[in-house]
Amino acid sequence: MSADDMTTLPTPAPAAPSRAGMSPLAKVGIAVAIVVVLVVAAWAYGRSSMAPERAAADATRIRMMLLDARAQVLDAQLSLYAANFGNAAQHLEYAKPPLAEASNAMRDGDLDELATKVDAALQQVMAGRDLAAKLSLDANSKAGEASKLLGDVLAALPR
């Protein structure tokens, strides 16, 4: 081996990396980024776990509106039995807003078949109100049909 042969020379050791460290600003930036990622992840997890509870709350709200409307219809029937047509017309008028709102909520929740029954009950309520305003006892049969339709819808609603 000759002195000119480079294969036999020892190779130099690699240079040690400089340990100057991170700046305090970079450390704060990384900590803030980690906190933001954790907050977004917690929000997404909470949002996704609320879907079943939101569906149950919507179903309960629809049920409440239908029960309110049915109570008004039944009160109207009681008023019609007592021949109090003004009070009956007023109760039937009060039944209209919750029925319309329940129908819209059912359509939003893909319960179109039940929403159609609620719309039919709303038509019966409006016809009954008109008949009660004309002092006709036929308003009682319209209110009875509306009450029956609402009972069917309430029985068919998922709990």
Describe this structure in words.
This protein is mostly helical. It has a domain at 50-156: IL-4 antagonist (De novo design) like domain (Four Helix Bundle (Hemerythrin (Met), subunit A), Up-down Bundle), CATH 1.20.120.660. Helices cover 77% and strands 0% of the residues. It is built from five helices and no strands. Helix 2 (51-81) packs antiparallel against helix 5 (138-156) and helix 4 (112-133) packs antiparallel against helix 5. The N and C termini lie far apart (93 Å).
Could you give the distance between the termini? 93 Å
CATH superfamily membership of the domain at 50-156, which one? IL-4 antagonist (De novo design) like domain
Order of helices and strands: HHHHH
Please give the share of residues in helix.
over 70%
Compute the number of strand runs.
Answer: 0
Major sheet summary line: none
Protein structure class? mainly alpha
CATH class group of the domain at 50-156: Mainly Alpha
In the CATH scheme, what's the topology name of the domain at 50-156? Four Helix Bundle (Hemerythrin (Met), subunit A)
Detail the poorly predicted runs. none
**Mean pLDDT rating:** 87
* Discrete helix count: 5
Overall geometry comes to rod-shaped
Rg over CA atoms: 36 Å
Question: Can you tell me the CATH architecture of the domain at 50-156?
Answer: Up-down Bundle
Relative strand content: under 5%
